[in-house]
């Protein structure tokens, strides 16, 4: 799907040292002294194992990304990087039958060690094997395992945590040196086992032609230099920006005495309690309900379109005209955005407002790593505050199934947990650095009970947000497959073969050899089995029932439909299916499209709209699909991504832009290896880039953006034909995208704090683009044009309008909006400052003016930066949150 997660740009390391058999039972042993550990002691003493794990120092270090330096010259694909894993034991460990299992998201190409070999187990799990002559670990000696892996590694966060060691039937022991720490300054995770990059030329660049500048203090200072602090000019500014806003800056309206809500003329379709969530947010910000406060009068305007509102603020009366619960709630949200926290005031104003797009969504992946119900509810609060109206909740993928399904308990008993069980009878394999204990980490393991999901649905509906459940299929389905295999074994053991086969998802005689883009060879449902369709129908029916119980009917169901990776080719079930010419299938290459078409029509028969990612939907026969289809388009713009968008728009589908270059929030916010996230689509997706996005004219972004190596690219939107079909067709006037969706995939996101720091404040800019269309965007030319760095459709005047618009929003965020997030417990990303020493004086800036900048000289305390000051390098800098209890990561000026 559009999985940042899923493209072949992922790399992560999570090690498991295994000695002896893969048994699960813990054996209690008499405590053994630490010394030279014989093989017998290593296999029988839990204390010996524990001590070795406690004091074994492991380091994972990227050496270089340059293929011309380290890759095999005779290989066709010369992209690779060199890694070194180092082991330094405190004590001897002479056992010979140990194994090291580790997660490596980029496949190993070649091992360069005389002591160790590597072979893949499944997905990102690999096995390090001691070579025959290796005699064991000697105390205080360091052993290196060097290897080449595919493509490149550009972030320190790629190295995953929780290496562990097991021996025989002893319980696994976490290797202490590979556990995460948390930085007191930033509250973000720290990986002590992954040394910082020390040579950016070969570690952070992909090749010698890579032109992306590193976001050090000087580069950030340069990027921020056109944004000035304008605190006096942002009074009454609102995010997202209203369609029409008239402000009287000379007349301030104080809300310090609170508000009194008059519901007498509320639309008959709306109940007062429908507005409670928006009112509650005002109370959190300090604006209380008070009978003596300013009256807020709700009135009905039947001429308004859904979600639109009119708002008038005067010193004695606030009036909100609306038509539905969303319109009144959005009017209240605009008051909350406009009010200044320090004075609880806002200027007199008049607003007429309506949304740019009908669909304004946020996607949250809880399958790779789990987010609790409470986290989802907090996210829904913030989505409602910024007028987003759809939560795409991704609850099933290869690494986890997160929703309780009636009569299929194995989906959550097995599929929601990862632990050290290589048979996968009680949990899934320990992917993504999850560690050996399924009870130790609620950020990895967990699921939503039926009641939890109903609560999420009702909470979302009360905030005018629809929930789109997503259980990926037929690819990305490993959690479901392994869970149903556990069910199969359980029922066969009870001599219930018919029941065991009912929901089985694989053909046991299938000899197909394939690897998904995450390197699984068993993650795709067999689409030729009746039991597969029985399973899908069962899941959909149960989810539909939960929506009905919540009073929020299921309108859209997302099947994923992407990345099936060549499965089924040697499945006897599929050979028979094709031979019978079922449903017109004549070749196995048609099976993926057949599955999507069949499930889409199954959903349509139930009155539910089918949704999927654009790559999978691109393989179907549109004539065999329902008339109404929801497609998430995740094509990279610098790779000609606008073409697929335009082609699927031409089918009349509801096309939602999920463009990874700008809307994948698991991408880094800055071009710095210390920044968290994957980077296959973008190495710098900051708030300003999201603001600059022109979604109605995708090819025009080539005039302002560059590719992943900071090189100019061109977007050709001129009519292009191939035999039998269009290769590119410009948009027709009648076709428009349905909306935008931001995505957070969570392979590397292991905590609420990390999730917050990746989502916020970028989600606020997503809301801005989805709600408001600025004047500076380049109009689309329906005749088709060629856009590049030399074309001039994005005029200097429009560029200046864009800069001025961003300056307004950046100041509003820095002076006002971020503080409101902080009051609600949101751990948003604090941007590191930019700085430069000019004529002996420190000059500093920050991307959101209004945030405090601090600097520190060697041996001195932190000081607040206000104006240029004489200093001597080195200087350390950081930005600080409004409450002062959290700071950005540090930037350094060495000269």
Any descriptors?
eight-stranded parallel beta barrel, six-stranded mixed sheet, CHB/HEX_N_dom, 895 residues, TIM Barrel, alpha/beta, globular, 22% strand, polysaccharide binding, beta-N-acetylhexosaminidase activity, 38 strands, hydrolase, Chitobiase, domain 2
Structural commentary:
With 895 residues, the protein is an alpha/beta fold. The chain folds into four domains: 13-203, Immunoglobulin-like (Sandwich), CATH 2.60.40; 244-353, Chitobiase/beta-hexosaminidase domain 2-like (Chitobiase, domain 2), CATH 3.30.379.10; 359-787, Alpha-Beta Barrel (TIM Barrel), CATH 3.20.20.80; 795-895, Immunoglobulins (Immunoglobulin-like), CATH 2.60.40. Helix content is 24%, strand content 22%. The protein contains 22 helices and 38 strands. The strands form nine sheets. An eight-stranded parallel beta barrel has the order 19-20-22-23-24-25-26-30, surrounded by six helices. α8 runs parallel beside α10 (450-461). The longest helix is centred in the last third of the chain and has 28 residues, at 796-823. Its EC number is 3.2.1.52.
